[in-house]
Amino acid sequence: MKHTYKVERWEFNDFTEDQQNDWCDSNNGGGREWASYLVVLVDGEIDQVYSDAMEPEDAKFYRDLDWIAGALKAAYDFGRKNGR
Fold it and tell me: From the CA atom positions of the chain, what is the Rg in Å?
């Protein structure tokens, strides 16, 4: 069985209220609504969510965002495994 695997960038308001409570636990304290999210969808359902845990004005070159490469590699590996 082949699966579809998508990685999308979402904002807090792109999630439903239930999804916000289930998936948007950024380490951004009370500012989780200002963070951006990398959402991994498998067959249209949320499989994983990663957060940059920062507000746009905090995006600096010295921030550690190396988790993004790992998330994209996992998506690539999943796609290769499933023949996409």
Answer: 14
Cα distance between residue 45 and residue 30, in whole Å = 26
> pLDDT of the chain along its 84 residues, tens only?
677 888 899 999 999 999 988 888 755 566 788 788 889 898 999 988 888 666 666 666 666 677 778 877 887 787 787 765
- The structural domain count of the chain equals 1
CA-CA distances (angstroms) from residue 4 to 29, 63, 71, 76?
A: 33, 31, 16, 12
CA distance 55 to 74: 25
Q: Which domain holds residue 68?
A: 5-81
Contact 4, 42 (CB under 8 A): yes
Tell me the CA end-to-end span of the chain in Å, nearest whole number: 12
